[in-house]
């Protein structure tokens, strides 16, 4: 039997048996290494190579940033800013849900953190206001996936580190498609609000709205610091993450005094645990991805797809379909590392830029966060809203279609993704 078939088949078999993704990657890799009579030191070497990156140090700091934001009053301040901005539109709480997720995404880059923090406040509020509970769950889960598209995105950091692509350009490229998906979600919410007569929140008045914006201004400086610093060349993504954490700690522990400084060791410990799981997955995916390349999987897939069609749109649509399937069983972090050679191989064949490919792959793989069996964001939101997963899946399906629509539109109009980075960082094109 082909080693490549054994590698992929054993991995998906282990996943079906509910073995941890990291262990599944390692076990399936070791089986093939034995078959191919390769050195066992390759396992250690490739796992170490997968995490031996200064850029990846940005990930734990952005995770720590998310913890600090959730521990204090910053999330509540952002909710008030969102309510003052869009809450008075028909379907107000739904618009607030999407808007605050877009803002939260620009602060922490974590979809699961957004689902847990925003969902615990807005899902009960939407249910009390008469919104369909399944829709409240679906919208919360779907809007939280903007955290992996709008910068700072942990997935884009990993793609840039492993694909040798400018993270600054990737961050800028994620802004327009991420905001566009959010706008599509708000339009969809507005249409349903008209249909089911969902209410709008009363406008608090210009003075009150200005007060909320003023109280939320300091946290909103975080994306300005991160993006401005990276694009301006003042510091690296890792240094930007550290500075953002320092700013958040200053606001939480000194300015707002939301929590005592004595809680900091606990927050740090929780952040270490948060990072240890994806780090192990990244290391495991390193050896698996190396074997994928060693066994020539990228060439096989590229040759197969190009034998079916030479049309660039056809190639990219097949890539999108492939990533949709992969995203249902793998988290985006693992999928990016494992299938990076295939993504870049097909993209190069179709004539698309590596920056474009990184954002496109991230958009498509983000759908996997709300589609079972992996669907972690949908699972979290369903538990908060006490809605059966089956109902939530039906409600989230149209919203998944909106994200995929933006991905397909980007194929026809690449400037949706590359327009802004070409303008601000032309040296990377």
Topology:
Layout: H1 3-16, H2 21-35, H3 41-51, H4 58-71, H5 74-86, H6 92-108, H7 111-128, H8 133-144, H9 154-163, H10 167-173, H11 175-196, H12 206-216, H13 221-231, H14 237-255, H15 264-294, H16 297-308, H17 312-327, H18 332-350, H19 354-366, H20 376-385, H21 389-412, H22 415-424
What would you note in describing this structure?
By secondary structure, this protein is mostly helical. It has one domain (about 40-429). About 75% of the residues lie in helices and about 0% in strands. The chain is built from 22 helices and no strands.
Compact summary:
The chain is mainly alpha-helical and 429 residues long.
Number of domains: 1
What does the average pLDDT come to?
A: 86
Approximate shape? globular
Radius of gyration, in angstroms, nearest whole number: 21 Å
Question: What are the salient characteristics of this protein?
Answer:
429 residues; mainly alpha; 22 helices; 0% strand; globular
């Amino acid at each position: 039997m082909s080693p490549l078939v054994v590698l992929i088949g054993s991995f998906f078999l282990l996943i079906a048996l509910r073995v941890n993704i990291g262990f599944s990657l390692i076990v399936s890799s070791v089986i093939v290494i034995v078959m191919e009579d390769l050195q066992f030191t390759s396992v250690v070497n490739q796992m170490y190579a997968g995490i031996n990156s200064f850029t990846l140090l940005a990930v734990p700091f952005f995770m720590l940033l998310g913890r600090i934001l959730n521990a204090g009053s910053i999330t509540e301040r952002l909710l008030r800013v969102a309510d003052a901005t869009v809450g008075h539109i028909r379907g107000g709480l739904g618009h607030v849900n999407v808007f605050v997720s877009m803002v939260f995404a620009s602060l922490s880059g974590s979809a699961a953190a957004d689902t847990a923090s925003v969902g615990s406040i807005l899902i009960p509020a939407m249910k009390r206001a008469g919104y369909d509970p399944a829709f409240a769950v679906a919208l919360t889960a779907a809007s939280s996936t903007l955290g992996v598209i709008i910068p700072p995105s942990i997935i884009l950091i990993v793609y840039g580190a492993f694909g040798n692509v400018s993270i600054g350009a990737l961050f800028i490229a994620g802004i327009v498609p991420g905001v566009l998906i959010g706008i599509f979600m708000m339009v969809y919410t507005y249409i349903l609000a008209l249909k089911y007569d969902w209410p709008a929140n009363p406008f608090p008045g210009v003075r009150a709205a200005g007060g909320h914006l003023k109280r939320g201004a300091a946290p909103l400086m975080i994306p300005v610091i991160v993006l401005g610093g990276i694009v301006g060349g003042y510091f690296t993504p890792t240094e930007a993450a550290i500075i953002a954490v320092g700013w958040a700690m200053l606001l939480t522990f000194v300015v707002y005094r939301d929590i005592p400084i004595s809680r900091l060791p606990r927050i740090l410990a929780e952040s270490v645990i948060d990072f240890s799981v994806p780090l192990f997955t990244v290391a495991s995916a390193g050896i698996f991805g190396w074997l994928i390349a060693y066994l020539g999987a990228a060439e096989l897939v590229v040759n197969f797809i190009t034998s079916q069609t030479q049309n660039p749109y056809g190639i990219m649509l097949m890539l999108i379909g492939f990533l949709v399937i992969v995203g249902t069983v793998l988290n985006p972090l693992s999928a990016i590392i494992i299938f990076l050679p295939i993504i870049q191989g097909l993209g190069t064949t179709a004539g698309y830029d590596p920056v474009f490919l990184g954002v496109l792959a991230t958009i498509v793989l983000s759908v996997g966060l709300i589609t079972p069996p992996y669907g972690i964001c949908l699972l979290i939101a369903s538990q908060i809203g006490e809605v059966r997963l089956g109902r939530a899946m039906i409600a989230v399906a149209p919203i998944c279609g909106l994200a995929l629509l933006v991905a397909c539109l980007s194929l026809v109009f690449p400037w949706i993704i590359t327009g802004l980075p070409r303008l601000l960082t032309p040296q990377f094109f």
